[in-house]
Amino acid sequence: MYFDKPGKINTEKALKLAYERGKALGIKEVAVASSKGDTAKKALEIFEGFKVVVVTYHCGFMEPFKVVMPNSAKKYLEDKGAVVVSATHALSGVERSVANKFGGLYPTLLIAETLRLFGQGVKVAVEISIMAADAGALSGEDIIAVGGTNKGADSALVLKPANQSDLFNMRIREIICKPRSF
Predict the structure, then answer these.
(1) Which regions in the chain score pLDDT beneath 50?
(2) Is 91 exposed, middle or buried (0-12, 13-18, 19+ CB in 10 A)?
(3) Model-level pTM greater than 0.90?
(4) Which of 48, 121, 36, 45 is nearest to 84 (CA)?
(5) Alpha-helix runs per DSSP H in 32-119
(6) Which structural domains are found in the chain, ordered by start?
(7) 112-138: buried (b, 16+ CB within 10 Å) or exposed (e) per residue?
């Protein structure tokens, strides 16, 4: 499915499409990007019977030493059975700091920019699956990965996750939905 525009307006539809495809394929895990917890709460409502892994920004992403997802949202999600992972962006991390200080484009940033050719949400879906894998939150079986552009969800993939150290073993099996225009 292709959405006319990216962003939050597609969240519910993207999550429902992802759930239906995951259910049809017998997938048991979903990784969902969520900064403040809103998308994750919606995912918990929709992905009944799935292990829900919520991936959020690392501490200091917006402001030094400050968490992005409120502790109350994290607690709510965990109380409802979600695993919440707060991690450094797998496709930028320290390379962004080096690029900001010295200029240039580095391999990991180049991978991120290449994935953005499919849209920001697709890049995010790939990235959060790496972050969840590195946190030990995934089994290694195929998952549904849900990302978005700015806020909300607009992209969903079926993929075989991989850790950062084995990135090129990842397999994007299907694009369930994404924005056509971005």
Answers:
(1) none
(2) buried
(3) yes
(4) 36
(5) 38-46, 71-79, 93-102, 107-115
(6) 2-179 (3.40.1380.20)
(7) beebbebbbbbbbbbbbbbbbbbbebb
